[in-house]
Automatic annotation (TrEMBL):
Domain NADPH-dependent FMN reductase-like: 1-146
Matching InterPro entries: Flavoprotein-like_sf, FMN_Rdtase-like_dom, NAD(P)H-dep_reductase
Cellular-component GO terms for this entry: cytosol
SUPFAM superfamilies: Flavoproteins
GO molecular function: FMN binding; oxidoreductase activity
Protein name: Oxidoreductase
Lineage: Bacteria, Bacillati, Bacillota, Bacilli, Lactobacillales
């Protein structure tokens, strides 16, 4: 199984990157996880021709070729970082690779509470009509005190959180397989790819 892990920040010292790196190494026998950065994506400017910049197109192609996506988001001011929202806006406006794509949301933070508000906001965003990702339900992986969570070899030192992630990741792999069966040759999921706010504004049937 091929998965894409998106680092939801442009910070060079991100604990969310370390979390994805841990998953890439720890679950290497279960899935191939490619970690993708968003720091080179330009500021969204709504181009009239809806052409994606090169950095956006590269990310989009990787998402499209994957079986599922893992978003690792920090929490800034009770929400997701602006740089992550910016990247998602580009994908929504141009290539739309997240439609019908299985998604797992995780998050690491320096404090004890994790990233629950940011994850809730990210779920709302990814369920928008022009994104329409298939988000794994009933799972909210929150890694608090993330600076102390990994040893020098990148292994997670919190045994309870490591076990929780094992269970969540196993569920996600099952979720990916299930959604693949549901979306295969389904007219409902094919129609969802054709959504357009302009058509809605004009009163056209989707």
């Amino acid at each position: 199984m091929k998965l894409v892990g998106i680092v939801g920040t442009n910070s060079s010292e991100s604990t969310n990157r370390r979390l994805l790196q841990y998953m890439k190494q720890h679950y290497s026998e279960q899935a191939e996880i490619e970690i993708c950065e968003i720091d080179e994506i330009p500021v969204f400017d709504e181009p009239e021709d809806k052409t994606a910049p090169q950095a956006v197109q590269v990310l989009s192609d990787k998402i499209a070729a994957s079986d599922g996506v893992i978003f690792a988001t920090p929490e800034y001011d009770h929400s997701i970082p602006a740089v992550l929202k910016n990247a998602i806006e580009w994908l929504s406006y141009t290539t739309r690779p997240l439609i019908n794509k299985p998604v797992m949301i995780i998050g690491a933070s320096l404090g004890a509470l994790g990233t629950s508000r940011a994850q809730a906001h990210l779920r709302q965003i990814l369920e928008a009509p022009e994104l329409k990702a298939l988000i794994m339900p009933n799972v909210e992986y929150l890694l608090g005190r993330a600076l102390e969570a990994f040893d020098d070899n990148g292994n997670m030192v919190y045994e309870d959180k490591a076990k929780e992630l094992d269970n969540d990741f196993t569920e996600f792999l099952s979720f990916v397989k299930l959604t693949e069966k549901l979306t295969a040759n389904s007219k409902f999921f094919e129609i969802s790819k054709q959504f357009s706010w302009k058509q809605v504004a004009n009163g056209e049937d989707m």
